[in-house]
Amino acid sequence: MRFRHPDGSIVHLSYCTNVHPAETLDGVRAQLRDHCEPVRRRLGRDRLGIGLWLAREAARVLINDPAELRALRAELDSRGLEVVTLNGFPYEGFGADEVKYRVYRPDWTEPERLAHTTDLARLLAALLPDDVTEGTISTLPLAWRTPYATDPGAAGTARAALTTLAQRLDALAELTGKSIRIGLEPEPGCTVETTADAIAPLTDVGHERIGICVDTCHLATSFEDPDTALDALTAAGIPVVKSQLSAALHAENPHLPEVRTALAAFAEPRFLHQTRTSTAAGLRGTDDLDEAVAGGALPDSTPWRAHFHVPLHAPPAPPLTSTLPVLRTTLARLVGGPVPLTRHLEVETYTWQALPAELRPRTRTQLADGIAAELTLARDLLVDLGLKELP
C-alpha cells in the first residue's frame, strides 16, 4: 500500500510474511497464493505491499537460478503484490515448534550472516518495482547478549562485517541503480536492546546505508519513550531505515493473581517473550514470560511488558492490554512531521498461531481477515496523520 506524504514523497506500508513461515521457494510461492493475495483482495486493493521473509534455503535457490528469480518477480506482479522491504532477521527455522534463542544465530560475528544479508540485498534489488529505487532490510541487532558481551573481539568482528556489507551495498547501487539499506532491529536481550544501544555501533560503522529498524513492540517492551528515542537518533545522524508496526503485551498490575493468570496464557513454547519492568533503579527483565509469571524474578509493583506481538486491532481482554498507544506516538513522529523520518512501514504480527488457543485464527480465512484488519488500522492512522492513500 502506498501513501503520499504532504511533502510529496511516497510512504510504503506492507505486512511481513514471517507470519506464514516457509523455508523453501515452493513454500514462499504458496504464501503468495494462499495468504498474501487473499489479504489484498479483502482490502479491495489492486496492489499490496508485503515484507518478504526469505529463509536461507529459499534465498540461495533464487541467487543461484536467475530464472527462478524472474519467475518470482513475475508471480508477485501477477498477484498484485510488491516488495520494497525484506525481513532479514530470522535465518532459518522460524516455523519450527521451538524457535526461542535459535532466531539469533548466525549473528553478526559469523560469516553466514554477512553472506545471507548480501544475498538478500541482491535479491531485493531485483524484486523492487520498476518505479521504486530504494529497498530496505531489517536484521539482527548484532547478536544475543551472550557470549557476545564476554568476547573481546566480537564488537570488532561485527563492525568489520557491517563495513564490508556497506561497501557491497555501494557497489550494488552502482551496478543496479537500486539503493538497498540495512536496519539493525533493537530487541530486548540482545547486544543492541534499545535504540540508545544502537547509536555507538552504528556511529562506528558510519555509513548512510546502515541504520536502524524501529520495532514499536520492542521499543515499548523496553519502556523507551518514542520522542526521546527518535530525538537521540536524529541528533546522532542515525537513519531510521524502516519501522515495524507492532504492539507488545502490557500488564498494569502484575502483582494481582488474576493478572498473572492472564499473562500465563501467553507463555508458550515457540517464541521467546522477553519481559521487562521499569523501576526506580532502572529496567529489570527476564528472558521469557514464564520466568516472570512464576514469581520472584521481577518486581511486580510496576507495570510489566512482554515481547509478544499482539494483533494491532485486537488487544487482549482485561486485565491485560497492548502498547498500541506507543505505536501511535511513534508513528506520529516517524511520518507525521513535515518530512518523514522513514518511508518504509511494516506490520509485523508473526505470533498469530502463538496466541492463547481461544484467540488463534483456525482457518486461512480467519487469518487473512485478521491481517487485513491490522492493515486497515495502520492505514487509518496514516490517513489521520495527513497522508493520502494511493491506488
| Gyration radius from CA atoms, angstroms | 20 Å
Shape summary = globular
Largest sheet: 8 strands, parallel, barrel
Overall pLDDT? 98
* N-end to C-end Cα span: 8 Å
β-strand amount: 15-25%
Low-confidence stretches: none
Along the chain, the helix and strand elements come as EEHEHHEHEHHEHEHHEEHEEHEEHEHE
Structural class, from helix and strand content?
alpha/beta
How many DSSP helices? 13
Oligomeric organization of the protein chains: single chain
Task: Give the SSE layout.
Layout: E1 2-4, E2 10-16, H1 25-43, E3 48-52, H2 56-64, H3 66-78, E4 81-87, H4 111-127, E5 134-139, H5 145-148, H6 154-176, E6 179-184, H7 195-205, E7 210-215, H8 216-221, H9 226-236, E8 240-245, E9 247-251, H10 257-264, E10 275-279, E11 282-286, H11 289-294, E12 304-310, E13 320-322, H12 324-335, E14 344-347, H13 364-384, E15 388-389
Parallel strand pairs: 2-3, 2-14, 3-4, 4-5, 5-6, 6-7, 7-8, 8-14
Antiparallel strand pairs: 1-2, 1-15, 9-12, 9-13, 10-11, 10-12
Helix pairs in contact: 1-13, 2-3, 2-4, 4-6, 7-9
